Each structure stands twice: as C-alpha cells, then as structure tokens.
C-alpha cells in the first residue's frame, strides 16, 4: 500500500464515526477551540475527545497548536483543515491504481 492509499484510508476511517463528524462540524462552525471548551460544547469527556481528535489529526483533517493562556495554562487549540473529499469510483481507482 502506498502513502496516497494509506492517507485515503485514514481519512475514510476518521470520518466513519459520528463523534468525529460532530467535532469537525463544531470546529468548522465556531472556528478553532481548545480541548476543554470543545468537550463541554459537545458534551463528551476530554479523554474521549482526545482519542477522536488524535484520529482526525492523524488523517490531517484537523491541526493543533499548544498555546499558553494569560494565567500560564497550556491550552491545546484545534482547528479543522481546509479539505475536500470527492468520493467516486474514479477517485478510488485513481488512489488505489492497479493491484
């Protein structure tokens, strides 16, 4: 499996979860956000959110940046990347190629 095919499968796997779709929607609508606030908004635990954010980040659908708040706390901000996914037989054939 080449890198392109591996990345394509990672994107599909990352999008195959309702929590992750909700995360992308929240980040797209509201802009970048830090983990604790995003967990409150989505009403899920921070450990579960971290798990889903990690999967999204591995698929390059979100990015993160660690920043210090005014009171010195480290806040990990996430934002959705600018991606577009065209899923069609032709796209799959282009990615997978000939086996």
UniProtKB/TrEMBL annotation:
Keywords: DNA-binding, Plasmid, Transcription, Transcription regulation. SUPFAM superfamilies: Winged helix' DNA-binding domain. InterPro entries: ArsR-like_HTH, HTH_ArsR_DNA-bd_dom, Metal_resp_trans_reg, WH-like_DNA-bd_sf, WH_DNA-bd_sf. It comes from the Bacteria. CDD domains: HTH_ARSR (cd00090). SMART domains: HTH_ARSR. Gene3D superfamilies: Winged helix-like DNA-binding domain superfamily/Winged helix DNA-binding domain. GO terms for molecular function: DNA binding; DNA-binding transcription factor activity. Residues 10-83 form the HTH arsR-type domain. It holds the Pfam family HTH_20. This is Winged helix-turn-helix domain-containing protein. The lineage of its organism: Bacteria, Thermotogati, Deinococcota, Deinococci, Deinococcales.
């Amino acid at each position: 499996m080449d890198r392109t095919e591996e990345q394509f499968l990672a994107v599909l796997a990352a999008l195959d979860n309702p929590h992750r779709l909700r995360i992308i929607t929240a980040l797209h609508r509201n802009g970048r956000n830090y983990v604790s606030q995003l967990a409150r908004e989505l009403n899920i635990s921070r450990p579960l959110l971290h798990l889903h954010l990690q999967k999204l980040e591995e698929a390059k659908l979100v990015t993160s940046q660690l920043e210090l708040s005014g009171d010195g706390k480290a806040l990990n901000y996430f934002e959705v990347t600018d991606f577009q996914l065209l899923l069609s037989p032709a796209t799959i054939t282009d990615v997978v190629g000939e086996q």
